[in-house]
Amino acid sequence: MSILKEKKILLGITAGIAAYKTASLVRLFIKLGAEVKVIMTPASKNFITPLTLSTLSKNPVHSTFYSKEDENELWNNHVDLGLWADYMLIAPATANTLSKMANGTCDNLLLATYLSSKCPVYFAPAMDLDMYKHPSSIESLNKLQSFDNILIPATSGELASGLIGEGRMAEPEDIVSFIEKDISSKLPLKGKKVLVTAGPTYEAIDPVRFIGNHSSGKMGFAIASAAANLGAEVFLISGPSNQQIKHSLVHRVDVVSAEEMYDASHMYFKDVDIAILSAAVADYKPKNSASEKIKKTDTALELSLSPTKDILASLGAIKKQQYLVGFALETNNEIENAKGKLKRKNLDAIILNSLQDKGAGFANDTNKITIIDKELNEKAFKLKSKVAVAKDIMNEIVNRTKKQDE
Ligand code: CTP
Question: Is residue 1 included in any domain, yes or no?
Answer without folding.
Answer: no
